[in-house]
Amino acid sequence: MADRFAEVFRLRYAEVVRLADRILGDRAEAEDVAQETLSKLAEHEVLARPDDEVRAWLRRVGVNASFNRLRGRRRGSDRMRRSAAADRPLLQPDTAGPQLAQMVRAEERDAVRAALARLPERQRACLLLRHSGYHYAEIARALGIAEGSVGVLLARGERAFRSHYEQGTTNGID
Length: 174
Hints:
The protein is mostly helical and 174 residues long. The chain folds into two domains: 1-74, Rna Polymerase Sigma Factor, Chain: A; 100-174, Arc Repressor Mutant, subunit A (Orthogonal Bundle), CATH 1.10.10. The chain has seven helices and no strands. The N and C termini lie far apart (47 Å).
């Protein structure tokens, strides 16, 4: 079983990191999630199953762990943002250009994450998996749903995401 785990770790570690990084936007934290996910696999009976079932299990556990971290991080950053809002330094005129562009990118990234956070978990996971390059069958296995339901979840998720994103960009981020 140790050989099987080593093989799965070698083959799937980078994939779990990429998926977590798409959700979290932080490579180091994504690596932590991947290690956490794979350590759970070492003790789980799914390790004895075929590769496609192991891969689907890793995606599901990795997505859930990433969203758990994102929720925890968001709660902490919301508290810090509220307390630091009054202490924000003003931009210096000679550095406003690059800083302003960086701020705009950060605000857009925050708006995307805020819109995603407002989606139901299955729609959010479905969108993230699809935009990470997974096929309907892989998404269905990862989420434990029928393959025919993937298209419905994607359509609803995209519509809700667009609405939340537009609302967030016109009213400011939550």
